[in-house]
Amino acid sequence: MAYQAGGQRSQPRPVPESLEAQAYLQDYAALLEALPFPSVVFDHRWDVVLSNAAFETLFRGVGPHPTAMPGDNFLRFVLFHPDAGTILGDHESSWCLPMLAHFAASLERHGQDRGLQSIRRDIAQDPIMEAAYRHGLPHWIRAVGANAVEHDGAVRPLVHPDPRWGRTDCRIVGETPNTLQNMGYARMTLVLRESRKATPAPRRTRTARHGTAHLRIV
User: Fold this and answer.
1) How does pLDDT run across 155-181, given as a tens digit for each residue?
2) In what helix (H) or strand (E) does residue 76 lie, and over which residues does it extend?
3) At what angle do helices 137-144 and 97-109 cross, to 10 degrees?
4) Under 8 Å CB-to-CB from 125, ≥6 apart: which residues?
5) Distances in Å between the alpha carbon of 130 and those of 83, 138, 209?
6) How far is residue 198 CA from its own chain's centroid?
7) d(CA 107, CA 121)
8) Residue 168 forms beta bridges with which residues?
9) How far apart are CA 57 and CA 162, in angstroms?
10) CA angle at residue 38 from 37 to 44, to 5 degrees?
C-alpha cells in the first residue's frame, strides 16, 4: 500500500480494528494505485489513511516538516507547510480559505477531538492565520458564496513537478463509497486537467520559516 508521501508521521496512522475493514482498505489501496491521478483517503481530522503513487509524485519535492507532511495530514500541509504554495496555486484563496472553512465545520461537529484541538491551537499561535480564521473567513464565505468552500467539483490551480503537466489545473472529485464513509473516511482525487498549456514547473525556492503558518492576506 502507498501510505505516505515523504517524511515521517508525527503520530500513528489511524487503522480500523476490524480485520474485514483492514482487508477492505488493502483492496481499496490497490484500486487507488490503478489511478493515474493523485488520490487520497483521510479521516475527519484530514489524517491520511491511504494515498497512491500519483499523490506521492505530486508532493515529492516538499521539504521535511515535523507535523505538516502531505502524506500525514493534508489539512496541516495546506495551512502550515512553507512549501505548500509552490505546488498549490493561488494558495491562499483557492486552498487555504476553503480548507479553513472545512476545518471550522469539522471542529463544530467534533469539538472535543484532540487532533482538531491541536490544529486549532496552532492556528491561534499565528496572528495572521488566527485573524483569517476568526474574522476573514466569515467575510470571505459571504463574499464568494457557500459553493466556493466545497471541494467536490472545484477547479483549482496546481504546479506539478512533472514537466509534462507543469503549471496546470485540477478538478477535485470527492467520491466516497458507503463502506469508507461508515469508517469515518472520505476520498479526494485531484483530476489533472490540460486546460492550460503545460509549462515546466518553476524552480522551487525554500521560503524563510518565520512561524508556523504563511498566510499573508485575508
Assistant:
1) 999 999 999 899 999 999 998 999 999
2) helix 74-80
3) 110
4) 211, 212
5) 20, 12, 18
6) 23
7) 12
8) 158
9) 8
10) 140
131 vs 184: CA distance, rounded Å: 30
Helix (H) or strand (E) holding 75: helix 74-80
| pLDDT tens sequence across 15-72 | 677 899 999 999 999 999 999 999 999 999 999 999 999 999 999 999 999 999 999 9
Find residue 189's DSSP bridge partners: 39, 173
What does the chain come to in residues? 218
C-alpha 119/C-alpha 71 separation (Å) is 16
The grid cell for 160 is: 506539478
User: C-alpha grid cell for residue 187?
Assistant: 476520498
Give the residues across from 37 on adjacent strands.
none
Query: Which residues on adjacent β-strands are paired with residue 190?
Result: 172
